[in-house]
Specification:
Blueprint: E1 2-5, E2 12-16, E3 21-26, E4 29-37, E5 42-49, H1 59-74, E6 77-80, H2 83-91
Parallel strand pairs: 5-6
Antiparallel strand pairs: 1-2, 2-3, 3-4, 4-5
Length: 102
């Protein structure tokens, strides 16, 4: 497991590679982005969840940013099954280079 401190939100995002998720904890609540890796070097981003009490702080966006950075650095392509991730990627065209065309 590794973690990175985000300057944008001042939170610590952790990567639980064994659990296939990126997550953070804030005020006793856990926000996460889960994924699945396929044999053909695709990272399927399946679900993003931020508890209502900690929404509005950019946490979900930072989870996606870290997942994209991980995919890019490992040569994975992303399939955004999660509706939040799809919407985020539409707002951030700079990440289209890692999105898999299916």
């Amino acid at each position: 497991m590794w973690s990175i401190r985000s300057g944008a939100t001042d939170i610590e995002i952790r990567h639980d590679a064994d659990g296939f998720r990126f997550f953070t904890e804030k005020d006793g609540h856990t926000a996460l982005l889960s994924y699945r890796l396929t044999r053909d070097a695709v990272m399927e981003l399946n679900h993003t969840f931020t508890p209502p009490s900690i929404r509005g702080h950019g946490i979900a966006a930072e989870l996606v940013e870290q997942a994209v950075a991980f995919a890019r650095s490992n040569g994975y392509r992303i399939i955004p099954y999660c509706s939040y991730v799809r919407a985020y990627l539409k707002r951030h065209p700079e990440h289209q280079d890692v999105v898999a065309v299916r």
